[in-house]
Specification:
By secondary structure, the protein is an alpha/beta fold. The chain has 10 helices and 8 strands. 38% of the residues lie in helices and 11% in strands. The radius of gyration is 18 Å and the shape is globular. The N and C termini lie close together (10 Å).
Length: 315
């Protein structure tokens, strides 16, 4: 397999209010950035250093987690101190594209990662909630004019939320109704939806029956034991790459240097062998930290890991 037609993407966090509520550091003592902040966490110098380095290491696509980082004209109440105006975001997008990046917006609508929605995070599955989601997607599409749009939707379960002050887990048709509204809103914005593929791990039969083929699947795994996962749950995650391929879904397999530096190479090696060329759109690296100086080393390592993984397909 050649890497010539693949996207080599990196998840970039501008918004970061997606885990614990403001003031709640339960279970996050060593990761303060996972607690929501009323101020945008963004170090401009680190950002300006990191993006050229990504390009140098072969990244050609940025998936920008927007969240609270944008002042939405439709819902300005979601902004925090330091949120970017639409004009500033458009200028940044122009600069990124001049550097050679494809730019994909991401708004995470998982109940486990929606603190950025503020009061609306308490209104899931209502008509008001669905209308707000549609408003935000429409506005982001107008700003980004994207080809693709990532909807998040990962980790909506008790385990990830057990330390939150407010826990919501949508099930069965309630989850699907909200999701179809998101997909419809993205497609009205002339973009193609993307999603984390978590739901297939526990619903391997229900998922292919209900998930539209138009939705790009970003299945993720951060271990290094892809050939021999050590638990049934991990095996389900790895097996999903092949299941999604068998059902004809386009994929962007996702790794991270969160737990293992070697993970991205293992993701590329495994998926290049088990996902058909026809359905493999690219790979995504996810460092999972905002632009704060204390995370510089980890962010730059993520770029190095992407290059090492990409080199596997060049040799």
């Amino acid at each position: 397999m050649s890497d010539n037609k693949l996207m080599w993407a990196v998840l970039v966090h501008l918004g970061n209010n997606m885990w614990n509520e403001e003031g709640n550091r339960t279970g996050r003592e060593n990761n303060p950035e996972a607690t929501a902040s009323p101020v945008l966490r963004f170090d401009r110098k680190l950002y300006d250093d990191y993006l050229p380095y990504l390009r140098e290491k072969g990244a050609d696509t940025l998936i920008i987690d927007v969240g609270e980082a944008l002042v939405y004209e439709s819902h300005p109440e979601l902004a925090v101190e330091g949120s970017w105006s639409k004009e500033k975001m458009k200028k940044e997008l122009k600069d990124l594209r001049s550097m050679g990046f494809e730019v994909i917006p991401k708004l995470n609508f998982s109940a486990g990662h929606d603190v950025w929605l503020k009061d609306y995070a308490y209104m899931l599955s209502t008509n008001l909630y669905r209308n707000v989601c549609s408003d935000l997607i429409k506005e982001v599409c107008e700003v980004f004019e994207p080809k693709y749009f990532h909807l998040g939707m990962d980790e909506e379960n008790w385990a990830i939320q057990k330390n939150y002050d407010y826990v919501v887990v949508r099930q069965r048709d309630v989850w699907w109704r909200d999701f179809y509204n998101l997909v419809d809103s993205v497609e009205k914005g002339n973009a193609r939806p993307m999603i984390w593929s978590d739901r297939i791990w526990e619903h391997p039969e229900d998922y292919p029956a209900k998930m539209p083929k138009s939705v790009i699947q970003c299945n993720w795994y951060y271990g290094i034991d892809l050939d021999d996962p050590k638990s049934e749950s991990r095996e389900n995650r790895v097996r999903a790459f092949e299941t999604l391929d068998r059902y004809g879904y386009d994929q962007m397999p996702t790794g991270s240097n969160w737990s293992h530096r070697e993970n991205m190479k293992e993701i590329v090696r495994y998926c290049s062998e088990h996902v058909s060329d026809e359905h493999l759109l690219g790979f995504m690296q996810t460092p999972w930290y905002p632009f704060v100086e204390s995370r510089r080393e980890h962010l730059f390592e993520s770029a190095d890991c992407l290059k090492e993984a990409k080199d596997l397909l060049i040799k």
